[in-house]
Amino acid sequence: MSAATADLPKRQLGRTDMQITRVGFGAWAIGGAGWTFGWGHQEDADSVAAIRHAIERGINWIDTAAVYGLGHSEEVVARALRDLPADRRPYIFTKCGLVWDERDHSAPPRRVGRADSIRREVEQSLRRLGVERIDLYQMHWPAEDGAAVEEYWQVLLDLKKAGKVRAVGLSNHTAAQLEVAERLGHVDTLQPPFSAIRREVAQAELPWCAGHQTGVIVYSPMQSGLLSGSFSQERAAALPKDDWRSRNPEFLGDKLQRNLALVAALRPLAERHDVPVGAVAIAWTLAWPAVTAAIVGARNPRQVDGWLAAVALELTAADLDEIAQALERTQAGGGPRRL
Description:
Layout: E1 10-12, E2 19-21, E3 23-26, H1 44-56, E4 61-63, H2 72-81, E5 91-96, E6 98-99, E7 110-111, H3 115-129, E8 134-139, H4 149-162, E9 165-171, H5 175-184, E10 189-191, H6 205-212, E11 215-218, H7 233-237, H8 253-273, H9 277-286, E12 293-297, H10 301-307, H11 317-330
Parallel strand pairs: 3-4, 3-12, 4-5, 5-8, 8-9, 9-10, 10-11, 11-12
Antiparallel strand pairs: 1-2, 6-7
Helix pairs in contact: 1-2, 1-10, 4-5, 8-9, 8-11
């Protein structure tokens, strides 16, 4: 990696040989509009600029998925990295198991775990990304096509053995499902949702990962922008219909009010540390010992600069107590409030 990368704190990703920065670039939003879980219109030039800026600032991994933009996010990532020399290229993480209908992009993707489907998906991702090997390949969601965890997990283990992928993991899976997979072969990583609002995985999944040396890369640590410090009731109301957040309960009604009250409670803490509110939200997730790193999205270089402060921010015990008290007072989200 480049000399700049060495300046950012890193952690070993589980038992793998990868040392990753405490935050990585999340490429969900740069998939653009035109599918069920799109974030609205996105200029590809802005996406490429954001990725390159993150790399220049020292970020050494990118998280994407085949389904983001129905293949488009992977293509944009490839475009951003195309001219980079080998020693500056970040690790590329992507996911499988969500299959879309090419005839109807508005239809929700299907959760498919059949072996033939996953083998086909990995070849398509390798082609879109323009790489010979994917650094981390994860099953995006538990399958709903009748395929058992054992079935699709064995396929991922086989892909790793064949050298198609460097490491394998599971996203959005429970501790019970992780246990089933672990009996077949080690689960290198878990990618769960985790933020000060959505805290449920701290109950069982994070302890399981800590006990099995499974790396944890959490997604949506700013709850898809709600904890960025730049969100408001007016902005939530103005979200376009092609932005999935306009339909999400956390951005509506009483839940939105509680979430914004939490943001207000985090502002004094952010001011004391001289960082944006979003950096405090990200640092809160990184304070949990089981968490290796957090995935943070950006749609332009300015947004990257907005959350980079989280990399070096270490919250004190008093800070964590203050946040726990704010969570209790505002009743935002659910799950354990303190590690």
